[in-house]
Amino acid sequence: MSVGIDLVEIERLERALARRPRLAERLFTESERAYAERQGRPGQHLAARFCAKEAVAKALGLPGFNFSEIEVLRSDGGAPAVRLHGAAAARAEELGVEVRVSLTHTGNEAAAVAIVQAV
Q1: Domain of 74?
Q2: At 68, which CATH number?
Q3: Model confidence at 110: pLDDT above 90
């Protein structure tokens, strides 16, 4: 079992996305961006997903990763779920693990915890 955690200031990510509009395409999948756009404050939800990606990478021990390889989705029950692609999926398969995440945010900060456990 392994754990990863990450925290980010929401406004910092919002400013970065405003300065570099294509950054969102590099960091988030189309479905992640679409989900965030349906929310009252999209940056808050993107920040939580950014944290989840970082937390998953830490928990899997990925030294460098492509943000699109870790996708945060809503499951049928409303809880966040993770879909892995590419090197992240290969690493999870190599370790024989599944990944679970928990997201949270306030008006100022977003955070995520990832737990990786054997299946």
Answers
A1: 2-118
A2: 3.90.470.20
A3: yes
